[in-house]
Amino acid sequence: MQLTKETIAEHNQSLAKSHQKQFDFIAEGVNDLQTLLQKLIDFQIAIPSWALGSGGTRFGRFPGDGEPRNLEEKIADVGLLHALNQSSGAISLHIPWDIPKDAPAIKTLAAMHGLKFDAVNSNTFQDQPDQALSYKFGSLQHVDKAVRRQAIDHNIEVIKHGVNLGSKALTVWLSDGSCFPGQLNFRKAFQRTLESLQEIYAALPDDWKVFVEYKAFEPNFYSMTVGDWGQSYLYANKLGPKAYTLVDLGHHLPNANIEQIVSLLMMENKLAGFHFNDSKYGDDDLTVGSINPSSLFLFFNELVEGMDARGMNHATDLGWMIDASHNVKDPLEDLLQSIEAIMIAYAQALLVNTKELKAAQEVNDVVRCQEILQTAYRTDTRPLIAEARIRSGGALEPLQLFRNLKVRDELIKERGKKTVATGL
Length: 424
Ligand code: PSV
Ligand code: MN
Prior knowledge:
Elements: H1 5-27, H2 33-42, E1 46-48, E2 56-57, E3 60-61, H3 71-85, E4 90-92, H4 103-112, E5 116-117, E6 120-121, H5 145-165, E7 169-173, E8 177-178, H6 186-202, E9 209-213, E10 223-224, H7 229-239, E11 243-248, H8 258-267, E12 271-276, H9 293-309, E13 319-322, H10 331-350, H11 354-362, H12 366-377, H13 382-391, H14 398-404, H15 407-415
Bound molecules: alpha-D-psicofuranose and manganese (II) ion.
The site of alpha-D-psicofuranose has 10 residues, from loops.
């Protein structure tokens, strides 16, 4: 299904009057409105190829209808999202869930939808049917050199797929670790993992980066070999300038101060980017901003401050990706909600009066500091985002248009009801 410019224009026209009123109201108080809108227009968030179908838990999976059956249909889905919001201009592939068999054709198809390829992700946390050796006891950390070799080769293969598509980064997330005390020698596991990563690092093209993603627990429940940002940072530092730490918002122990983590990683120029999601208990992979929107704002506040302090380009100098699972919602609707939440928090962070905040910090005016942040957080930035969206050709209300057009019904007609996407 393809959305035409005319359909979007018609929808925008029908809502134009009320939007203009709301936009004028907020725009009046914004300094340098054009620069702010341009930042919102430029900001793009990559959609994970593995989250276009329904996810599940270890207790079961309830597939939705009309799920994309192959990579081409996944690209078409991201194309739909991007046509609606003009903020989802990239796709992040997971190999081997989504192997691009004909890379030039896939690249052309993506370009037709205005999409680029973001980081490619390797998978050594599952055994594939045709795989010689098992990852049951780890991959890059494994005691058996042959298993490590297989996992290294897989990562190098993933880089090759990425090169063919124009990606510029490899994300490595390892489920390696141990489930019981005594199972693993922590130091040796770290060293074996480092050596494996060094081989992968050596295979990176000059203009590539490797993102080392950490996670506190799951599937291993006693130790994870890349368990927190300190360990990831150690690997990244030892590997060299092309290695960075990737922060998945759901991969921390409860109440971790994620905004402080990203602030310090940025200070050290070791922050790769993000996997966005939200959580209440663990790695819940819920819709971004659905549980704790204020912490999403605080996180963006540190990012904007840190990026500006380093003169970084907000849109291009970090990797912005969603990593979520949609167990009970339509994945496309869920992704639209996530993108909206990210844009809302980003816009709020752009509204923080940094000059006044710095002055208040210097005189320890704690109350004023809090007031400044909360003034930005309590601003309804949706009209600003909507304005940025229509200026770049998107829909005023993406979710509303998605529903009005009965997009999912159309996809079911095209693909059938009982289709199951590869991925989570
Ligand atoms: C692991 O929980 C993770 O966050 C990694 O990024 C994986 O690549 C992704 O989820 C899918 O399993
Ligand atoms: Mn992740």
